[in-house]
Amino acid sequence: MLQKPRAHGRPCAQAERECGDPGEEAPSTSRGATGSSQGSRASLAAPAIGQRTQKQLDLKVAELVQFLLIKDQKKIPIKRTDILKHVVVDYRDVYSTLLKLAAERLQYVFGYKLVELEPKSNTYILINSLEPVEEDAEVRGDQGTPTTGLLMIILGLIFMKGNTITETEVWDFLRRLGVYPTKKHLIFGDPKKLITEDFVRQRYLEYRKIPHTDPVDYELQWGPRTHLETSKMKVLKFVAKVHNQDPKDWPTQYCEALADEENRARPASSGPASSS
Amino acid sequence: SKNKRCSLTPRAGNQLTPSLPHFVEEGEEAEEEEEVLTKEVEVGADGVSAMHPDLLELEVDREKCRNIRRHYRQLIYCVQQNREDIVRTASESLTEALEEADVLFDCVSRTREAVLDAQFLVLASDLGKEKAKQLNSDMRFFNHITFCDVLFVFVGLNWMEAECEEFSDCDDSIASFFWETVQKEATSWMLRAETFHYIFGSFKAEHSARKPRLEHHKRSCKMEGNGDMPMKLKKLDLNANQETTEKEVERILGLLQTYFEKCPDVPVSYFEFVIDPNSFSRTVENIFYVSFIIRDGFARIRLDQDKLPILEPTNTSQVDEENDSCSYGRKQGVISLSLQDWKNIISTFEISEAMIKNSY
Description:
Main location (chain B): nucleus
Distance between the termini of chain B: 85 Å
Oligomer: heterodimer
Family (chain B): Belongs to the NSE4 family.
Function (chain B): Acts as a repressor of nuclear receptor-dependent transcription possibly by interfering with CREBBP-dependent coactivation. May function as a coinhibitor of other CREBBP/EP300-dependent transcription factors.
Number of helices of chain A: 12
Domain Non-structural maintenance of chromosome element 4 C-terminal (chain B): 267-356
Order of helices and strands of chain B: HHHHHHHHHHEHHEEHHH
Strand content of chain B: under 5%
Region (Disordered) (chain B): 1-28
Distance between the termini of chain A: 44 Å
Helix content of chain A: 40-55%
């Protein structure tokens, strides 16, 4: 059977180094081992700045793609500083090229879009550039806890109630679905943590304290990731579908959703940039 | 819900309306006491103390200010308590509170009171903002309780209402079913990238600490001592397949030669030989094996007078002679057989059993 995978790195990069084939071109400073491998880096031939072969660049881009994919697992936005620190390192001067190439590869191979969470935020997320297809739902494997359902319901609630609701209202609603802030849930575990921490950290929701409230209450709004992964119109359609009604049955929300669609269609001047 | 309206009517002068709660900030009274002159003060019937006019004025001022502060604090407290009503209902209470604060402010001359006024204004403006938000949402069209009910219907659990009072009382499996169904619908409205996982394990971003050498050494020793190691696959044995093929070819050749010996003048119909009427896949396999026999020269395939392929034996001596390979003009042929062809042949030739019996 296969050996246990090494703790660090890409098997090929590791293997390349270990083969120590003198005939082959010296592997780039893309290190198999991460972290405090200062010593190992020094021992490898560091290419002169500006003199990087296509192969080295390709290797770097491949690493960056892998890094982005792994970092996206938790759905927490990826910081530019992390990218520089862990992957790009001494290829800083070509950072934007690397990022652009990585984004292209992600789009071309995986159908994922690398987008900046907010303009000039220097944090990135991956979103699907392919519209979900009904057949996929059957084939889609176990993607962990099914939290999207809960999220979508909350997003629907927020939008239909005027883009903001209080935490009190949320729990008042969710308890009817058997979800409580203090009771352990069969599927969601700690719902309060999920909603007020995890979703917030993933930037699906914004969670702010409402001033002058006693007892303290918080308000929930859509976060930047939500605006990228879905839209007001889509959420309205979801709500409408659940009601078995037409989205136009809620004229206020429908108008708002239409306006949002128009904004999106306009060529964005400060649109999501895939490279900084 | 309580619909208390606090109507504070500050009266001119410095008398407290007795019905309102006496709301005093801790320590302030004590602070005040220190400032007051130790001179005794007599409170007369009209509420004004009898002392030196200048001091009296000072005292009146202080008393007045204290009252103003008390009023403000009461106003703030009142508004906070009735926050829900103010924000949610169409009541005028916020406007009224603002008007009262306005009147109060007319008497304000010192910073301390002005601060409280500012505090109240911040509170009022926050509530005003909340109220405005409520106006935008047009709540009457979207009812969150209805949303809950339609969710159950949407998922297909409308029967459930009769069964259990609260969703939490229900079976775990019902809850799972509910959330899975909602999940399925929800994901079709989001452009979420699937989480990526390596098949053979993940990339640890953190550099795992090197294990102390001693431990590593101990572990390797331990492994050697223990003889039960799984068999390592040193080399992939690809020859296995080839042996099977050869064996099969030999077997089939044997069958063919047996037939040739039994009926030396009757050539074998190719189709009758290879076709297994019970299995299409075995037929294909047979064709495959026979092709080896022909390639190696142990048999010949040609078309008879009816243009049907037949198998003929070759003289074994001829196989070794290279000349004969030329004289016979070895040709390449491609045989394709679809499922339908196979069926057609079986019916046409009335093949009822396979000539090539299986070894298994």
